[in-house]
Write a structure and sequence with these properties.
The protein is of the alpha+beta class. It is 22% helix and 42% strand. It has 8 helices and 16 strands. The strands form 2 sheets. An 8-stranded mixed sheet has the order 2-3-4-1-5-8-7-6. An 8-stranded mixed sheet has the order 10-11-12-9-13-16-15-14. The longest helix has 13 residues. The chain is globular and about 45 Å long. The N terminus is likely disordered.
């Protein structure tokens, strides 16, 4: 135990190792070519593999996007096809990473630490319209920068109003200030193979990587520089960000923890390949 603790301190830095984790991997998204997005949308296999949904959402200001969602116990993946969301997020090779708090009010601590590190985050309230034109506050967000090249990351905290709205179909609080990912996501994952995302790899530009590093460190991830990029890990998920030139960006690989062991199965989905098993593990390359 003492040896393990010493290794953590040496690898991550004493201050970082001692900090309570404030932000956890919530979800990532990638914008893929239309053939791949369509194959994912219409795949019968994915409906057995994960709690799978295709949904068009209306957010703040009436913005709409159509995503393909694979949801687990605490984590999920969002897939766009080219043009499924307006602007640069709907362009091939765009990607994003959302990190969320688990305790109400931690977003304020994240903001204070970002400011102390020299970053002035942009506050944003996302809302959700369930179709009755009466938006409900969904989550508070902190954006490290106003504009990014192909990859954006943000911190978020679910709002009490969203949990209180019966249309959200979220679970009850398990402790005061519970804004956890597990409370937010449905429990349908129990009947599927996918349990959670354990690893995600995204190719980003040098500029986007530089603006993401402070958010990862502030959130309490153990961040280390490796040849070609950065690796951040904690809370059961490892995030690999590869530094690439503009034109080579995008979602590259996602690995999953499964609810139970499975025999090896290879599923081709457009220009991507999902390999399930053998064992309680799956990997999807793009």
């Amino acid at each position: 135990m003492i040896l393990t603790l010493l290794l953590v301190v040496v690898g991550a830095g004493p201050a970082q190792a001692m900090e309570r984790q404030l932000l956890y991997y919530n979800h990532a998204r990638g914008t893929l070519d239309r053939a791949t997005a369509d194959a994912i949308e219409h795949s019968p296999y994915l409906r057995d593999f994960a709690d799978f949904e295709v949904r068009t959402t209306t957010g703040a200001g009436g913005e709409k996007w159509t995503g393909r969602y694979l949801r687990g116990q605490e984590t999920y993946l969002e897939i766009f096809g080219v043009g499924d969301i307006a602007g640069q997020d709907g362009e091939l090779g765009s990607a994003a990473l959302a990190l969320s708090t688990e305790r109400d009010g931690d977003i304020d601590t994240v903001k204070a630490r970002l400011v102390a590190s020299g970053v002035t985050p942009i506050d944003f309230l996302q809302t959700r319209d369930f179709g009755d034109h009466k938006p409900v506050p969904w989550f508070d967000a902190l954006l490290p920068v106003e504009r990014y090249e192909r990859f954006g990351a943000w911190a978020m905290e679910y709002r009490d109003e969203y949990f209180a709205d019966p249309r959200s179909q979220t679970g009850p609080a398990r402790f005061p200030g519970d804004v956890t990912r597990e409370r937010y996501l449905p429990e349908r994952y129990r009947d599927k193979l996918m349990r959670n995302i354990s690893f995600i790899r995204i190719a980003v530009t040098a500029r986007d990587l530089a603006t993401t590093r402070p958010l990862l460190r502030t959130g309490g991830f153990f961040v280390r520089t490796e040849p070609g990029g950065v690796v951040a890990s904690r809370g059961g998920v490892t995030i690999r960000l590869d530094e690439v030139a503009l034109g080579q960006t995008g979602l590259k690989r996602v690995e999953f923890e499964l609810n139970h062991a499975a025999e090896r199965h290879v599923q081709r989905l457009g220009n991507s390949t999902l390999v399930v098993g053998p064992g309680a593990h799956a990997a999807w390359t793009f």
